[in-house]
Amino acid sequence: MSEVLLTAADEYLCHQSVASFEQVTTTDRNWTEKGYIVAHDVSGEVLIAVGIGKYTNRDVMDAFAGIAVPGRQWNVRASRELRPDLDRTTVGPIVWEVVSPPTTNRVALADNELDVSFDVTFQSDFAPIVGSPGLRRDRGITTNHTIRYFQPGRASGEVHIAGRTYVIAPERSNAYKDRSWGIRSMTGVPSPGAFWFNDPAARPEAALRPAPPPGEGVLHGYLNLNFGSWALSSTFTQGPDGRPIQSSTGASEGFVVFANDARPRLRITSLELDFEFWPNTRRAKSLNAHVQLEDGSKREISCSWKDLVYYFRGGGYFGFRGWWQGGYRGPLDVAGESLDLRDKAVLDELYGCEEIAVDCVCDDEIGHGVIEPWAIGSLPRYGITEEMLG
Prior knowledge:
This protein has 390 residues and is mainly β. It has a single domain, classed as AttH-like fold. It has one helix at residues 344-350; strands spanning 31-41, 47-55, 60-69, 72-81, 90-91, 94-100, 104-109, 116-123, 129-130, 134-138, 141-161, 164-168, 173-184, 218-226, 230-238, 254-258, 266-277, 284-293, 298-311, 332-340, 354-362, 365-376. The strands form two sheets. Strands 1, 2, 3, 4, 5, 6, 7, 8, 9, 10, 11, 12, 13 and 20 form a 14-stranded antiparallel β-sheet that branches.
């Protein structure tokens, strides 16, 4: 009989299975737990993005830290063996710290070869916005079964880039946290034929059934918009004609929530989104949102692009330069680069979801947020053709 390995979480009265927290209740190697925080100053000078992933059945913990300023982004990716250090949420130079759950987290990037670093604290006056679990199965294979929550907030801290210091102040910041766990198919190198499988340095994992051919184009993503006393958080999926459709990972879902629980949250019953894209690209420029809530009220929100974008494919999502999130890379591996976002070839290589800082207007209220659209395939509604890259 194998020895039971205890973790710090085992000291708390929160067990739900006859096992220690070293194990999860499935042996699916794509079981994943992730954390993600985005924060930026509202003047549009600097944005940071941090993600951490724990892959219990792959013996991997990895993380990435991104910094964006107008026209440039830096990526630092790190991966380590999970065991025996299951409790430590530090991977190389990247730190993810739970300070006071669920309201306060600290994320940091220590000094590294790229000469960029930061130490930023996320804080929130909003309750986490918990969505319904998403489930997708194809020919007996569970490719997605996850649950997640979003949390609007603010940030404070400093970002250092090549000798220059940027200060992020709480009253002049916008931030959000994204936590998720479950089975995710885009862990490790995905099945041959998957639409994101376009990295020539990657090697398909053996004995995986090829992914089914992609269908029609879709525009999928997330909205996180913060007006101070209230905030909107929603997933969305549109078909080729721009009309809302069912997401392959579950129903699109969203809420409006109020700071300090001033009012109960309101479910979004109708969400009509009209994006504008930069000509001949898949990159979004602006958004008009028509929102109807369960209490019958409506909100018209316009979002305008700031020259502050982070492409989180640079963090290893969907594969980047041979690096795939959840892929085993040995005891410790760290990589990264600085990228010129004015270079179209770089944008084409990076495309695969973008974090776009936006200014928002709703009637006479001014807000700030991040929109995260991902344009896949042909989208005639927006003039996007199959051959467009980024």
